[in-house]
Every structure is written in C-alpha cells, then in structure tokens.
Amino acid sequence: MPKTRVMIVDDSAVVRKVVSQAISREPAIEVIGTAQDPIFALQRLQHEWPDVFIVDIEMPRMDGLTFLKKIMAERPTPVIICSSLAAQGTQVAMEAIAAGAVSIITKPKLDLKAFLEDASNDIVSAIKAAARVNMSALRKLQTPAQPVAPKYDASAVLGLSSHKGEQMYGTTHKLIAIGTSTGGTQALEAVLTRLPRVCTGLVIVQHMPEKFTALFAERLDSLCQIEVREARDGDRVRNGLALVAPGGRHMLVRRSGAQYCVEVRDGPLVNRHKPSVDVLFRSVAQVAGKNALGIIMTGMGDDGARGLKEMHEAGARTLAEDESTCVVYGMPKEAVRMGGVDKVLPLDRMPQEIVAFH
Description:
Blueprint: E1 4-9, H1 13-24, E2 29-35, H2 38-45, E3 52-55, H3 64-74, E4 79-83, H4 85-88, H5 90-99, E5 103-106, H6 112-118, H7 120-131, H8 135-140, H9 155-158, E6 175-180, H10 184-192, E7 202-206, H11 212-223, E8 227-230, E9 241-244, E10 250-256, E11 259-265, H12 277-287, E12 292-296, H13 305-313, E13 317-321, H14 331-337, E14 343-345, H15 350-356
Parallel strand pairs: 1-2, 1-3, 3-4, 4-5, 6-7, 6-12, 7-9, 8-9, 12-13, 13-14
Antiparallel strand pairs: 10-11
C-alpha cells in the first residue's frame, strides 16, 4: 500500500517538528515537506504534491484561508486546519469548512508542544480520514448557496416579539432525523437550502466540536427558507424547523403528549462522538417508529448505522446517501451492510424525499 503523503504548512517550528515526529511513527503516513508559510509551500508544490495538507490559519505573507481556497480552485486536495483561531474565532473555522477543509484541529496558544504530543493519535486519525475523502464529491458541494430573503415575522411590522412559526403549525405528528459527519456540513447545506418553508420538522446530528454547531446553524438559517438553529433542551420539533444537536452534548427525541420534543443532555462519548447519531436515531426509533424518516449521509466510521437499523425495525422509513455523492462513504456503507436502509439515493434526491414525507 502506498503511503499517505503529508505537507505541513505552519509558521510555528514547534508545530512542524512535533507533528512531523508524530507522523513518522505511523508507517502508513510520511511527511514529504514542511513550510513556514504558503508562499514557501507553493514553491515546494511545483515539484511534489501531497495527498493531505495540514495548514495553519494565521501565517505571514498569505493566510491559511487564502491558501486553502487556492488549493481548492487549482487542485482540490484534503486539507486539515490546525489553528488556535479555531477556538478563538469560530467564524473563521466555519469559513474554512465552507471553503473545503475536511477537518479542524484546535491548538492552544499555551503548552503547544505538550498538546500536540497528547493529540498525536487524533492528528494521525484525522490524516487517515482525510486521505479517504472523495474530493470530487466535496468539490461539487462547494458551489455557494445564495441567501434567501430575510424571514420576517409580524414583529417587523408590529414591533412585538414573537417566535418564528410558533403558533402557525399544529401538533407535529412526524419527524425527520438526519445523521452525518465528514463532509456533512456541505451536504446538509445542499439539502436544507432546497427545502420549502413548510416541511416536516427535522432533528440533526452533525459531528462537530462544542461552539461550532451554533454558528453552523446560524449560517444555515441565513441560507434556508426553513428555520435552522442549535437545539435547546425541551425544544419542540415542529414543521418548518431544523434543530441541530449542540457540539459536546447528546440530543434525544422524547414524546410529550401528542408532540415530539428534544432532550439535550451530557453523557459519555458514543462511537467516539458527542453528539452521537446512534443516540438520536435510537431515541427516534423508541418514540416515533413509523412516524419518522431516518437519513444517514456522508461520514467516517459507523455512528448511526445501528440506530438507523433500529428505526427501520420500528417501522420508520430509512434512507442512505449513495457512494457517488458521499465525501466519505463510511456511515452509509455500514448502515446498508447492516440491512437498515430502505433506499439508497444520491444527495440531490434527498430534498424531494424529505418534502414528500408529511
């Protein structure tokens, strides 16, 4: 098997040295070059191109975001962002994901060497995951969506506070649960921006760190006709609303009379994730059964595959994204292998299936 070739672009000599040492202990990965800024990297790239980049954001002469966009425009290649800005300015990190970054590693300002040594296994895992990314599928998802007109309610005219759609819809008897991971931010944008204002309520788990999900939901809300926001404990699942599980917390669906509500709670990592798709899907299987539609999309690993099978066995309709459009065909592949999928569809077919489920 050929080795995964990595280039590290970071102005910190500590990062370049420690990450290189961590990678050197992994026989399937090799560092083919390091550079202290993107200009030096571009000179190296004239002779050899890596399979995966590890890139900082704050660098002299050219910032990491500009370099990322240049890579995606000229020769799309998996890019892992390793930056302290990911913690300080999540807007920058979200911009990186929107531009095509496949993973984010947040590094601290202090005790950097100790952190990198402790996180070496995570870095290696991120590289292995990045090497499996379907860049062709990811590239197709890079077309930016256009913001829709602002979603005003009566308060814009009357000067009264109100919650969008809170009184417009009756009891929610059905719900749609979606689980996704690597490549999912772009995939969710591609699906949710194509939904009409009135559609069955959605509950979504996207593997993301704490604090990222709120900003991610806000961005989707600005692009979509439906309302999208980070879930809060006790939120009701209703038509025209998509609730995104907060990073670092699990989200479950519970029955409250004739309605469905979400419960946001702490707990251990499930399948190495929090939030976990399996936690959401299993709760939906228990309380919604045939009143639910489950969708599993692009992602590394198998989180959600067992939960989707439980939904299927409980009478729910279940869908999986086709390999041809997956950035990483891991989670859908496992769901299909376990026999929990009714239909396999490419990403562009998902919106019409969601609209038809009511």
